[in-house]
Amino acid sequence: MSRSVLFAKAMMLASCFMLSMPLIASEREANTGTPPLVVNEYASTPIETKHGLSLYDSPELPVDFAYFPHVNPSAPKGGTITHTAVGGSFDSTNPFIIRGTPATGISNIYDTLMASNPGEPFSLYGLLAKGVRLDPNREWIEFDLRSEARFQDGEPVTAYDVVFSFNLLRDEGNPFYASYYAGVERVIAQSEHQVRFEFNDTESRELPLIVAQLPILPRHYWEPRDFTAPTLAAHPGSGPYRISNVDPGRRIVFQRDENYWGKDLPVNVGRYNIDQIVYEYYRDRDIAWEAFKAGLTDFRVDARAATWAIGYDFPAYRDGLVKRITVPDVNPSMMQAFVFNLRKEKFQDPRVREALSLAFDFPWLNTNIFYDTYQRTESFFQNSEMEAVGPPSEEELALLAPFRDELLASHQSERLFTDPLPVAHPTELRERLRLALDLLREAGYDVVDGVLVNNDTGRPLSLEVLLYDSGLERVVQPMLRNMARLGVQTSLRIVDINQFLNRQRSYDYDMVISHFPQSNNPGNEQRDYWTSAAAEAPQSRNRMALAHPAVDALVEQLIRAEDRESLDTVAHALDRVLRWGFYVIPHYHSGETRIAVWDKFGYPEPFPEYAMDLDAWWVDTDREAELQRRHRRR
Asked: Does the structure show a pLDDT above 90 at 362?
């Protein structure tokens, strides 16, 4: 879980130019291992080499820390954990490219330059890098690599692999990387074990930490291969697990590498204890649920309210063989939402989007389907100090003022500058639909023989929701019925995961369900969510194809925020623009992660403050043996 947290920003999404070999000095020098040594050429005084980085302050842990405070350093090794992967499939073990559907858990095979501490909001400590130097003016950062670091095939990890990985991801990887690493001017291997990143963006406080989380790929393996093509090969990384078995679309197994070079590092002690990590794929939620109850899988995140509320009345749970764990969210509650495709002319008018959003009847869903376990999501930074609440402050208005004309034109209302949040819509469905019809009439529509028709074009307003998970049909259908009451022609199409991804990449949809996870320190990944550049990229997270100069400017100011107060103010303004634009129909959140496990695991308690850190769990062999004995007797 924590390794997923480490990769969350860089791999939640994922070409710029061809690999720039001069940045490795020359091919001859790279092969001889004697490139020119360049040390702090821009520094007037020596720069202190440190063991960690932090976003605003200094890392909490001292240079001689032995292990993260939350782990059990004596945790036993061994056993298997089998995860339930629901609603999809996979056809690739390369998670960094556009093509193909990558298998879950691939991040387990990769090491990064530095590793995050789940007990701190955003601090990193040495992994492949034993030391780091950050220029006071943030023009560059240097890493000293550990000479003992090895890939899983025995080849050493060098600065040339770091340069290769950066250029490969930015040139041939998912277009996300081009925007994510946009502030990096170049990367230089200064020696076999020293690498420098030079920045053209010195205002992004997060950028040094972003490059420290770069996954390092083996140059000797990937250079002769087509990186852009999906593959099911068990390619090597340098991380604690290696790919052991691949059953395409059904199962992938990761085996703990007993010869892992970094197993005794402080960031790894007490972690990566379980021998095998297995992901079993099920296309249907109900079948996956039955598989868990039968003991075919032993770990699942339960995202279904009905199952959590009434589904655990089965023998293994009653006998204490299965337990439930609730972990409070520490990051802002994720925005899950129906997303309008702004490339479609019919969704260009914000009054149409607002009207359609009023057809989503959350109170009815919560009472009749969700057992009153959810809360309505309002903000893109829900349940955090970054959430915009009440009327805009003077500081927010100052940020919005340069774009007042564009915002008035796009939002067609003064409310953004005057009215408080959350938006004051009626609670009762009848009143909401009445308001929706008024908005649609303002936008140039009228009901003719029960069908909502555009007065200028004579075309009916139609809307199709595209899904790949049939389990969400029960959320979609009530909303479509309400839209039909307005005269909207609605439909629902459920396709397989590969067709869904292909249509999503080409913006071939009216509406899809998408997710916008946020950390407590939003940064470069925001470019991929909202900006004009991302609206043109084939696989960005800007599912609504939003392109607005005010949003672009606010994203850049968010990335460059110098302190927490400034970041919060910019986030408030961005949140306000997005919410008053009605680009999505927000869903709901629980404020917690619900986990069900067969009771064979040990884990440190309490959980660390900023992540559950599944990597610190272990299999308790005594409890596992007792579990198997009691399960066989049943």
From this structure: yes
Q: How far is CA 116 from the centre of its chain?
A: 15
Tokens of 561: 């925020």
Q: Residue 185 is inside which H or E element, if any? A: strand 184-191
What's 29's DSSP letter?
Answer: H
Contacts of 8 (CB under 8 A, 6+ apart): 517, 519
Q: Please write the tens of the pLDDT for every residue from 400-423.
A: 999 999 999 999 889 999 999 999
> Do strands 80-86 and 451-454 pair parallel, antiparallel, or not at all (unpaired)?
unpaired
Q: In angstroms, rounded to a whole number, what is the distance separating the alpha carbons of residues 464 and 489?
A: 8
**DSSP code per residue over 455-479:** TTT-PBPEEEEEES-GGGHHHHHHH
**186-203 burial by CB neighbour count: b if 16+ within 10 A, else e?**
bbbbbbbbbbbbbbebee
Tokens 């999503």 sit at which residue? 504
Q: Mean per-residue pLDDT for 124-151?
A: 97
Higher pLDDT: 537 or 619? It is: 619
574 vs 396: CA distance, rounded Å: 9
**Cβ–Cβ < 8 Å for 341, 347:** yes
Phi, psi of 414 (to 5 degrees): -85, -5
What's the rounded mean pLDDT across residues 331-340? Answer: 94
CB atoms within 10 A of CB 136: 9
Using alpha carbons, select from 432, 437, 90, 483 the residue that is nearest to residue 253: 90
What CA–CA distances, in Å, run from 131 to 50, 73, 119, 142, 143? 5, 23, 21, 8, 6
- The per-residue pLDDT for 18 is 25
Residue with the two structure tokens 């858990």? 105
Per the DSSP assignment, residues forming a β-bridge with 187 are 197
Q: Contact 180/166 with Cβ under 8 angstroms?
A: no
Burial 555-587 (b: 16+ CB within 10 A, else e): bbbbbbbeeeeebbbbbbbbbbbbbbbbbbbbb
Spell out where 16-145 has E strands: 52-54, 80-86, 114-116, 123-126, 129-134, 140-145
pLDDT score at 19: 26
- Check: CB of residue 216 under 8 Å from CB of residue 244: no
Contact 120, 54 (CB under 8 A): yes
pLDDT higher than 60, residue 458? yes
- In angstroms, the CA 32 to CA 30 distance is 6
Which amino acid, one-letter code, is at 62? P
Preceding peptide of 62 cis, ω within 30°: no
Query: What is the sign of the dihedral through the CA atoms of 27, 29, 33 and 35?
Result: negative
Q: Is 532 helix (H, G, I), strand (E, B) or coil?
A: helix
| Residue 182, token pair as written in the block | 């946009």
φ, ψ (nearest 5 deg) of residue 92: -155, 145
Q: Determine the Cα–Cα distance for residues 205 and 410; give it in Å rounded to an integer.
A: 31
- Give which of 606, 522, 515 is closest to 556, Cα–Cα: 522
Name the β-bridge partners of 255. Answer: 242, 276
As a whole number of angstroms, the distance between CA 260 and CA 151 comes to 9
How far, in Å, CA of 411 to CA of 582, rounded? Answer: 9
Give me 175's structure tokens.
Answer: 């277009």
Residue with tokens 């074009």, as numbered in its chain:
457
> Taking residues 420-432, what's their average pLDDT?
96
CA distance 278 to 486: 48
- Residue 88: which of 101, 73, 69 has the closest Cα? 101
Q: What is the pLDDT of residues 188-220, one digit of tens each?
A: 999 999 999 999 988 888 899 999 999 999 999
Domains of the chain: 335-584 (3.10.105.10)
**440's tokens:** 């649609």
